[in-house]
């Protein structure tokens, strides 16, 4: 329900509905009445809220593949609202961040690393590569990024220990998209990985968005967002994640 998404968006942004309306240029009385009486909320109002709260407009709508779980989604939202104190609550509550959302954010913010709290825990940040580098140098590994979850990384030290153990060809392929940022502001690639980590085989595919962004102090940063596209299970059966890109 769109009204529930608006309530959740306000909690994520840390403001009340009236403040959100003031920031966004939406008539508070009208929107409040529409939400309370389950009346249609114009797309123009959602567009204004999206800009005002710095949340992608897709957040207010049911995403593909979610029609069977509206009640479950609402319960997850309510649980997240009560339990989370940080802005990344939206992704943990079930909002499926996609590569399109990341690219929309990149263009909206003109490559500036700001207003990214809603997906911050799903992105890895790296130092720009030097010509002599033989591995990427992480600044921050997102707690819920694909790298953290699938490669079982607990932080930067784990990154060097685990990723540094991969074959040179695997590391070189991972570095290639970083190097290409000298020519383009971002690049989207489909990758595959087949490695042994902590005695377990990790084999799957992922879609990676590698971006050249500017940090809060004006420093250059390489940001990477990845979305799993398929995985092989222990039984060698392919599991396909629902991926919109």
SSE inventory with pairings:
Layout: H1 2-13, H2 17-24, H3 28-36, H4 43-53, H5 70-83, H6 89-92, H7 99-108, E1 123-126, E2 138-140, H8 146-150, H9 156-162, H10 168-179, E3 186-197, E4 200-214, E5 220-232, E6 238-239
Antiparallel strand pairs: 1-2, 1-5, 3-4, 4-5, 5-6
Task: Explain the overall architecture.
By secondary structure, the chain is α+β, with helices and mostly antiparallel strands. It has two domains: 91 residues, 434 Repressor (Amino-terminal Domain); 141 residues, Beta-Lactamase, CATH 3.30.450.20. The protein has ten helices and six strands. Strands 1, 2, 3, 4, 5 and 6 form a six-stranded antiparallel sheet that branches. Helix 2 crosses helix 4. It is elongated and about 60 Å long. The C terminus is likely disordered.
Q: What labels would you give this structure?
A:
plasmid; six-stranded antiparallel beta sheet; Beta-Lactamase; 245 residues; 434 Repressor (Amino-terminal Domain); 2 domains; disordered C terminus; elongated; alpha+beta; XRE family transcriptional regulator; 6 strands
């Amino acid at each position: 329900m769109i009204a529930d998404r608006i309530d959740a968006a306000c909690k994520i942004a840390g403001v009340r509905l009236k403040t959100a309306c003031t920031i966004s240029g939406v008539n508070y009385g009208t929107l409040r009445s529409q939400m309370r009486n389950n009346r249609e909320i114009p797309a123009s109002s959602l567009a204004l809220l999206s800009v005002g709260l710095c949340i992608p407009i897709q957040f207010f709508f049911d995403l593909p593949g979610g029609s069977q779980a509206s009640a479950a989604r609402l319960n997850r939202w309510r649980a997240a609202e009560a339990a989370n104190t940080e802005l990344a609550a939206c992704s943990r509550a079930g909002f499926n961040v996609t590569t399109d959302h990341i690219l929309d954010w990149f263009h909206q913010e003109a490559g500036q690393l700001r207003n990214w709290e809603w997906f911050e825990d799903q992105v890895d940040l790296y130092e720009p590569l030097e010509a002599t580098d033989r591995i990427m140098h992480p600044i921050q590994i997102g707690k819920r990024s694909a790298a953290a979850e699938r490669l079982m990384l607990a932080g930067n030290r784990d990154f060097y220990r685990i990723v540094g153990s991969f074959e040179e060809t695997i590391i070189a392929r991972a570095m290639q998209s970083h190097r290409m940022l000298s020519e383009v502001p971002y690049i989207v690639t489909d990758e595959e990985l087949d490695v042994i980590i902590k005695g377990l085989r990790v084999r799957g595919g992922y879609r990676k968005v590698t971006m050249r962004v500017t940090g809060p102090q004006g420093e250059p940063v390489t940001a990477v967002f990845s979305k799993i596209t398929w995985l092989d299970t222990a039984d060698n059966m392919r599991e396909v994640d629902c991926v919109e890109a």
